[in-house]
C-alpha cells in the first residue's frame, strides 16, 4: 500500500485522540545499555531507575551500520538505509571516485554580475538535504499534531514540516565544515609541517605586547579574485600579568590565562553593504613565554543565521534570546583539538562542558512551552565525550595509562548523571496521560584495535596499489590501481565493488558481482587479528540481503562490514588509504566508538508506560510514536518488512 494512502487512513484515528495528548522523546546519543544498567544498580541514576521500575527498560536495536546519521535517519523515516539513502558519514561518487558528506550538499550560485573587483551572485545557490523518505513528524503535523523537533540529527537543512525545528548533527560551521578551529601561537615551530585535522594553526608575532591576527571565513563570493572573508582583531598583552584584552570590531574581552570568553558576535565583511554574522569563543591558553590563543569554529549566529537552521526562521533567535547564544555547528565538542594536540585532556573536558551545558540550559525553556503534541529533544554531549573517554575506563585498552587515566574514569558517568537529572525534570513535568520515551541511537564500546580494510583487500588479491612503497598514502583512493582492483573501502563500514559501467574505472562485470560478494564476505568472517587471536569481523551485510527497501541501494556500498566489538575500521582506510599493515593498536585520543557490528552496540529504550505498539528497533520507533496518537501505517510498521541478517557461509 502506498504511504500516502496509509497516511490518509490514519487521519480519522488521530482526530479521535485527545487534543491535549503529549508525547516526549528524549534522544541521548550513544547512551549504552550496559553502562546505564550498572549505574542504576549503583544508585547513580535514580530517575532512569524510576522509569525502569514504573514503565519499561530494554535494549533498542540500532542501525546497520550503527553510525549516528544512519541510526537517526532510521528513526526519522521508519526505513533503513535502502529507503532513506544514508549508509555512512561518507559516500563516494562512482563517476569521480571522490568521497563526500552523506547527509547534505551545497550548490554554489551559477550566475554572477561583475562590477569592478566584485561579482554579485544573481542566484543564491542552495543546500540540499540528502536524506530521503518522509519524516514522521510530517505525518503527525498532517494529522493535526503540533511538533517541536530540537536538534534532530540528519535534519539539516530543517525539513520545514514541523511547527518548530532546530537543526542538529549535519549543520556546518560558517566554512561549511564539521567545525574548524583556529589556533594562534607565537611559537612558529609548533605544529610546523604537521597537517592539522579539524583546525588551522596561525603563526603570529608579539610586538610591544601586541598581537594582530585575523579570523578567516569562507571565500568571499562577491570578489572575482578568490579571497577569504576575514575580520582582523588585536590582542593587548599585560606586560606583567598573565592577562590579555581581545578587541574585535566593537567587541572587547579581557581574559586571564586559562579563561574562556563568552560568545563574541563577529561580522565578516563581504562588500561595503553586506556582512556575514558569526559567533565564536576565545580561550587564552597562554600569554608568555609563548602566546597561545584558541578560537572555536566560526558558528552561524543564531540571532541571525546565514543559513537555514530553524523552522520558523525566528525560532533559533527565540532560543538565543531566551537562554543566550549557543553552538550551532553539528558536533561542537572539539575532539579534533584534543586529537591534534592543541588541547590537553583537561582542556577538552572543560570545553566539552560548554556545549553540553547549553543544550541542558535550553531544555527547561523548551519544556515549559510545550503544551500539546510531540516534543523531541536531542542531547549529543555523551557521544562526543564518549569517543574521547571510553578507553580511559578500560585497563585493557592499548593506550591506557594506569597513572593518568583513572582521573577521568568518572567523566562519562558524570555526563550520564546530568542526563538522569533531565529525566527527573521531565518526569516532574508530565501530565497524567503523557507518554515519555527515552532512547539512544546506539551503544558504545572501547576501541582497542584498528583494521585497515583496504590493506586486507590488498593482501587477499582484491585491491592493487600503484606504489607499494609509498611512505605516506595520501588517501582519497589516490594510490589505487583501478585496472587491477575488484573491491575497495570508503567510509567506516562500507565496501564497494569496482563494477564496470558504474565505477569510473570499473572492471568487475555485473554477472560476477554476487559470487565475488559471497567470496569476500566468507573470507572476511575468517579474518583473525594476529595480535589478539580474535575474529576481526562478526558479520558481513550484503546490501540487497540486508535492507528492506531498495530504492537507494545504488547510493551506498555493496557490503557493510560488521567489525567485532572493540575493533573498528581505521580512519586511514575509511578515507581511501592503503597502509602497509592490516591491523594495529588504536593509540589515538579517540579511544571509544560504536561503528562495529550493530548487534554489539544496541541502544536503550525507556518508557514511562507500555507503548501502544512495541519498538524493538530504531526503525520501529517512529511507528510506535505515531501509534500513541492513533496513527497507523508508517514505515517500520509494514507487514512485509524483512529481517536484516548478516552473511552466513554455506555449510
SSE topology:
Blueprint: H1 3-16, E1 22-28, H2 33-41, H3 46-54, E2 56-60, H4 68-77, H5 81-84, E3 90-93, E4 98-101, E5 104-107, E6 112-115, E7 118-121, E8 126-129, H6 136-142, E9 147-152, E10 164-167, E11 181-185, E12 199-203, E13 210-219, E14 228-237, E15 243-248, E16 251-256, E17 259-260, E18 264-271, E19 274-280, E20 282-286, E21 292-295, E22 299-300, E23 310-311, H7 314-323, H8 335-339, H9 345-368, E24 373-379, H10 381-389, H11 411-429, E25 435-439, E26 445-446, E27 449-451, H12 453-459, E28 487-489, E29 494-497, H13 513-524, E30 537-542, H14 543-546, E31 559-563, E32 567-569, H15 571-574, E33 583-585, E34 592-593, E35 603-607, H16 618-628
Parallel strand pairs: 1-24, 1-25, 9-10, 9-24, 11-12, 27-32
Antiparallel strand pairs: 2-35, 3-4, 5-8, 6-7, 10-23, 11-21, 13-14, 14-15, 15-16, 17-20, 18-19, 19-22, 20-21, 25-35, 26-34, 27-33, 28-29, 29-31, 30-31
Helix pairs in contact: 4-16, 9-10, 9-11, 10-11
What tags apply to this protein structure?
16 helices; 3 domains; single chain; alpha+beta; Alkaline Phosphatase, subunit A; 651 residues; eight-stranded mixed sheet; five-stranded mixed sheet
Question: What is the spatial order of strands in the main beta sheet?
Answer: 2-35-25-1-24-9-10-23
The gross shape turns out to be globular
**CATH level-two architecture of the largest domain:** 3-Layer(aba) Sandwich
Share of residues in helices: 10-25%
What Rg do the Cα atoms give? Answer: 25 Å
Q: CATH superfamily of the largest domain, please?
A: Alkaline Phosphatase, subunit A
- Provide a count of the helices: 16
Beta percentage is 25-35%
Low-confidence stretches: 1-14, 638-644
User: Main beta sheet: strand number and arrangement?
Assistant: 8 strands, mixed
Please give the alpha-carbon distance between the first and last residues. Answer: 38 Å
Structural class of the helices, strands and pairings?
Answer: alpha+beta
Number of strands: 35
- CATH fold-level name of the largest domain: Alkaline Phosphatase, subunit A
- Mean pLDDT score: 91
Amino acid at each position: 500500500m502506498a504511504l500516502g494512502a496509509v497516511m490518509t487512513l490514519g487521519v480519522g484515528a488521530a482526530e479521535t485522540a485527545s487534543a491535549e495528548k503529549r508525547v516526549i522523546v528524549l534522544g541521548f546519543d550513544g547512551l549504552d545499555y550496559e553502562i546505564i544498567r550498572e549505574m542504576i544498580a549503583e544508585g547513580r541514576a535514580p530517575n532512569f531507575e524510576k522509569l525502569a521500575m514504573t514503565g519499561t527498560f530494554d535494549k533498542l536495536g540500532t542501525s546497520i551500520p550503527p553510525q549516528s546519521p544512519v541510526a537517526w535517519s532510521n528513526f526519522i523515516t521508519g526505513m533503513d538505509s535502502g529507503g532513506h539513502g544514508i549508509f555512512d558519514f561518507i559516500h563516494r561518487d562512482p563517476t569521480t571516485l571522490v568521497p563526500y558528506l552523506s547527509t547534505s550538499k551545497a550548490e554554489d550560485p551559477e550566475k554572477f554580475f561583475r562590477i569592478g573587483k566584485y561579482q554579485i551572485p544573481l542566484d543564491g545557490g542552495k543546500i540540499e538535504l540528502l536524506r530521503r523518505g518522509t519524516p514522521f513528524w510530517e505525518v503527525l503535523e498532517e494529522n493535526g499534531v503540533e511538533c517541536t523537533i530540537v536538534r534532530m540529527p540528519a535534519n539539516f537543512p530543517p525539513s520545514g514540516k514541523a511547527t518548530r525545528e532546530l537543526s542538529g548533527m549535519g549543520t556546518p560551521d560558517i566554512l561549511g565544515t564539521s567545525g574548524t578551529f583556529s589556533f594562534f601561537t607565537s611559537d612558529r615551530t609548533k605544529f610546523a609541517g604537521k597537517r592539522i585535522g579539524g583546525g588551522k594553526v596561525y603563526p603570529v608575532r608579539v610586538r610591544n605586547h601586541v598581537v594582530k591576527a585575523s579570523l578567516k571565513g569562507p571565500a568571499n563570493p562577491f570578489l572575482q579574485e578568490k579571497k577569504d572573508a576575514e575580520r582582523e582583531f588585536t590582542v593587548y598583552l599585560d606586560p606583567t600579568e598573565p592577562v590579555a584584552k581581545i578587541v574585535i570590531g566593537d567587541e572587547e574581552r579581557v581574559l586571564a590565562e586559562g579563561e574562556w570568553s563568552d560568545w563574541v558576535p563577529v561580522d565578516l565583511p563581504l562588500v561595503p553593504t553586506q556582512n556575514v554574522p558569526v559567533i565564536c569563543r576565545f580561550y587564552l591558553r597562554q600569554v608568555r613565554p609563548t602566546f597561545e590563543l584558541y578560537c572555536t569554529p566560526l558558528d552561524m549566529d543564531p540571532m541571525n543565521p546565514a543559513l537555514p537552521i530553524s523552522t520558523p526562521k525566528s525560532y533559533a533567535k527565540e532560543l538565543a534570546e531566551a537562554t543566550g547564544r549557543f553552538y550551532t555547528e553539528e558536533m561542537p565538542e572539539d575532539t579534533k583539538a584534543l586529537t591534534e594536540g592543541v588541547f590537553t585532556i583537561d582542556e577538552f573536558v572543560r570545553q566539552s562542558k560548554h556545549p553540553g551545558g547549553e543544550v541542558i540550559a535550553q531544555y527547561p525553556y523548551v519544556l515549559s512551552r510545550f503544551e500539546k503534541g510531540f516534543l523531541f529533544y536531542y542531547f549529543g554531549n555523551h557521544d562526543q565525550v564518549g569517543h574521547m573517554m571510553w578507553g580511559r575506563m578500560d585497563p585493557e585498552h592499548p593506550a591506557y595509562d594506569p597513572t593518568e587515566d583513572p582521573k577521568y574514569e568518572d567523566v562519562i558517568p558524570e555526563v550520564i548523571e546530568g542526563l538522569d537529572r533531565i529525566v527527573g525534570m521531565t518526569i516532574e513535568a508530565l501530565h497524567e496521560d503523557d507518554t515519555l520515551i527515552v532512547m539512544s541511537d546506539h551503544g558504545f564500546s572501547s576501541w582497542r584495535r584498528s583494521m585497515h580494510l583496504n590493506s586486507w583487500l590488498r593482501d587477499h588479491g582484491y585491491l592493487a596499489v600503484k606504489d607499494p612503497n609509498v611512505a605516506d598514502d595520501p588517501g582519497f583512493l589516490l594510490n589505487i590501481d583501478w585496472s587491477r582492483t575488484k573491491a575497495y573501502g570508503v567510509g567506516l563500514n562500507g565496501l564497494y565493488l569496482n563494477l564496470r559501467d558504474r565505477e569510473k574505472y570499473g572492471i568487475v562485470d555485473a554477472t560476477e558481482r554476487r559470487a565475488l560478494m559471497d567470496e569476500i564476505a566468507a573470507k572476511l568472517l575468517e579474518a583473525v587479528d594476529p595480535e589478539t587471536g580474535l575474529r576481526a569481523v562478526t558479520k558481513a551485510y550484503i546490501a540487497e540481503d540486508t535492507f528492506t527497501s531498495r530504492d537507494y541501494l545504488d547510493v551506498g556500498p555493496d557490503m557493510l562490514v560488521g567489525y567485532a566489538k572493540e575493533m573498528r575500521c581505521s580512519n586511514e582506510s575509511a578515507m581511501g588509504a592503503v597502509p602497509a599493515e592490516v591491523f594495529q593498536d588504536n593509540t589515538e585520543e579517540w579511544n571509544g566508538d560504536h561503528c562495529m557490528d550493530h548487534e554489539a552496540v544496541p541502544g536503550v529504550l525507556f518508557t514511562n508506560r507500555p507503548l501502544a505498539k512495541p519498538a524493538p528497533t530504531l526503525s520501529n520507533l517512529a511507528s510506535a510514536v505515531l501509534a500513541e496518537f492513533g496513527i497507523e501505517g508508517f514505515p517500520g510498521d509494514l507487514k512485509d518488512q524483512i529481517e536484516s541478517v548478516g552473511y552466513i557461509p554455506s555449510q
